[in-house]
Specification:
two-stranded parallel ribbon; single chain; alpha/beta
Length: about 150
């Protein structure tokens, strides 16, 4: 049975008044200001190693940035490539598979992937088969099942 949400006119008016006005633009987390060109590879590797040292393996969240859009949204501040060339997604998946092969072994195998986020650009730029291919690459390289040791 599906729950029903009921709100009267006064409650709706109060709600609309509370949220009337401009809000922050959607952004990623962490925000772009947290990224730096001068962050050395050694520091990244230290952070990964440190994150692997917890007595109870910490879960992982994976983010896949699909930077392609078929058309430009003028309100968008995301890193994107506007193209109607759908084969660009195949090239991207090939490069992504190499990146996964380089990064996945750095993380302890018992660390469970709890979240996968697709962003962009527009993840719908890719076909269902292409998204499935990415998910299969991730599943082959990261731990998606129940932990083997507690």
């Amino acid at each position: 049975m599906q729950a029903t949400f009921v709100i009267n006119a006064d409650q709706l008016n109060d709600f609309l008044l509370r949220y009337e006005g401009y809000g922050p633009r959607y952004t990623s987390y962490p925000t772009a200001l947290h990224f730096r060109d001068d962050f050395p590879l050694g520091s990244y590797l230290e952070q990964v190693t440190e994150s692997n040292q917890h007595p109870v393996p910490r879960s992982l969240s994976l983010y896949i940035h699909v930077s392609f859009c078929a058309s430009l949204c003028y309100c968008c501040g995301c890193n994107k490539v506007v193209t109607r060339n759908m084969s660009r997604a195949d090239e991207y998946i090939e490069l992504l598979s190499k990146e996964i092969a380089l990064k996945a072994p750095l993380f302890e195998s018992g660390r469970l992937v709890e979240q996968i986020h697709f962003g962009g650009g527009t993840p719908t730029f890719m076909s269902t088969d292409q998204i499935k291919e990415i998910l299969e690459l991730l599943a082959q390289s990261f731990h998606f099942g129940l932990p083997q040791k507690l």
